[in-house]
Amino acid sequence: MGMKLEIDGAVVETRRQGSLLELMLEAGAFVDAPCGGKGRCGKCRVAASGELSPPTEAERRLLSPAELADGIRLACEAKPLGDVQVRTLSRTDIGVEVSGSAAEYPVDAPWSEGRDVGMAVDIGTTTVVAYFHSLADGRLLYTASGINGQRAYGADVISRIAACMDDPNALAAQQRVIVAQLNGYLGDFERATGVGRARIGRAVIVGNTTMQHLLCGLDPAGIAVAPFVPKSLFGIPQPARELDLAFDGEVYHGPGISAYVGADITAGLLASGAAECDAPALLIDVGTNGEMALADKHRLVCCSTAAGPAFEGAHIRYGVGGVAGAISQVNCTPDGFSIATIGDQPPIGICGSGIIDAVAAVLEAGAIDETGRILDEDEIEGFAAGLLSEDGDEILLDSASGITLTQEDVRVVQLAKAAIAAGIDTLLHSQGLTLGQIGKLYIAGGFGAHINKVSACAIGLLPIELIDRMEFIGNAAGMGARRALLTADGCDRLRALAARAEYIELSGDKFFEERYVEQMLFPEQ
Predict the structure, then answer these.
(1) Model-level pTM?
(2) In this predicted model, what pLDDT tens digit does every residue of 374-414 receive, in sequence order?
(3) Rounded to whole angstroms, how far apart are CA atoms 327 and 520?
(4) 237 forms bridges with which residues in the sheet?
(5) 437 CB neighbour count, 10 Å cutoff
(6) How far is CA 161 from CA 373, 408, 504, 506, in A?
(7) Structure confidence by residue, pLDDT tens digits, 195-253
(8) In 289-437, which ranges are E strands?
């Protein structure tokens, strides 16, 4: 006998048994599940009523009695036993904008009459952004962006690869999710501009190597196990219809460098010009994969560090993505902590830039030591002593919302920042360079654009020696994809960058391992 599942007002019928998460994904609903549905993160909260299995041990651990009483459940744990009504609580509204700005470089890509629009796409592990341009003059017609719908299969690439390895249907499911998301952007573009998708002649798509595999339906299992061999490093064209993308043009898949340094970094190098500098330059994407490059006219060396998704809000008690209401700034004042949220909305959680600020602010307040330990009340001088929880495991950041920074949050940030910092050290060591010889440090990524560099240096994420040489360049992958879309030699230049790059594998690298342990400590305040 079938069951009726009502999701945000839409009713679907199913005979399948499984968790709410599984059934909701099958129905095409977005659910934020950074841990991949393992019952660990507590982020896949939904409001549910009807015939449901009783709360599990994981739900009782991760949800408060008040939440359970209000019908809040974890989608990965709750199982329908009959008809169920569900309201999603995940936030995906990171913004859509319309702009008419022109490119900052000569636009000379070939285009045909009636096919005068192009699409440049950056498929990030967390965020997907699509830029629609006039191929005739380079004008930016429309930008669409949102949380990557594959996040329901895990916050990081390893989780999504593991899902494919554990479930024979997960690869096809993740491919459908990203294709549907891009087709949704195509529809948004048509409605917002009145320009039909029949005018789209070509697209350039970049992303890390795993995201490209999932888009193309290629098995990513080889990326997760030694010797880390992907099915493809791309750099090839393909008819859009072969991917079930809803336009008749051609897609160019940007070329990657290795299993863990993908086309997003190749595109970032093109956008930044780092590989054309006289003095050595660093390009760092401070994200889940911690991809980075050290480049100048004569060298191009890359690596990737397993920073994890902490800077995307995952594995943080009150972590959320960069959505309205996310705490994005935390400052330490003489009287306490002050916060700011995205959109000046009431706080609902804390995003990546806010997490970096929060740790830096708590360090400044003297509430944690260089090892990351939250100090006991009698060890703290000043206001922070009054903000400790009863068990001393949390520090209150905002009294109105009750949002705290926990001991586990601090440990997760330490792991992430140590990976990035040790990766920088290893790249420099491989080339016999010092920080003093670096001419520029480019910080890439949509998240990177919002980092407070003083806070990033205070926690040891970025080297303070380069604070005056840092340049935040935003979504460099998207900019590189746009440049490849709009210039006649752009795709050739991407291929040339990928071909000249040397990759350093950090797993098993003794120098990296030593520096990783050392970088776990916070700098002296």
Answers:
(1) 0.85
(2) 999 999 999 999 999 999 999 999 999 999 999 999 999 99
(3) 25
(4) 252
(5) 11
(6) 33, 25, 22, 20
(7) 999 999 999 999 999 999 999 999 999 999 989 999 999 999 999 999 999 999 999 99
(8) 291-295, 300-304, 326-333, 336-341, 349-350, 394-398, 403-406
